[in-house]
Design a protein that fits this description.
mainly alpha; rod-shaped
């Protein structure tokens, strides 16, 4: 009777399991860990944008931006495009609330 070599089948199964872990499980775990970090960032951005709005005049956009960026860097954030997008979103939200930007009258 001839023996069947199962090594290629076992190797293929290990590769498949590794691919599933790499493609789905590990990114899912990373999103769960970073949700807290994102929530913390959003709180800091909201606080910084609100403070800048209170500290500077409406026309002092550059000073407000500098204040917010410095505030976030002081709290350990490295400023990149994604953080700038979060800041811009918060500014837009705050201006909509304060000045009714975008409302049809």
């Amino acid at each position: 009777m001839e023996t069947i070599n199962l090594t290629p089948i076992i190797n293929a199964m290990i590769l498949l399991i590794s691919a599933v872990l790499t493609a789905f499980v590990i990114p899912w775990i990373k999103t769960k860990i970073s949700e807290h970090d994102l929530a913390t960032l959003l709180v800091w951005v909201e606080a910084a944008v609100g403070a800048a709005e209170q500290l500077y005049d409406r026309e002092d956009g550059a000073k407000k931006r500098e204040y917010v960026l410095n505030f976030l860097m002081e709290h350990g954030y490295t400023i990149d495009e994604s953080i700038v997008n979060v800041i811009e979103n918060e500014v837009l939200k705050l201006h909509h609330e304060l000045y009714d930007y975008g409302e049809d009258e």
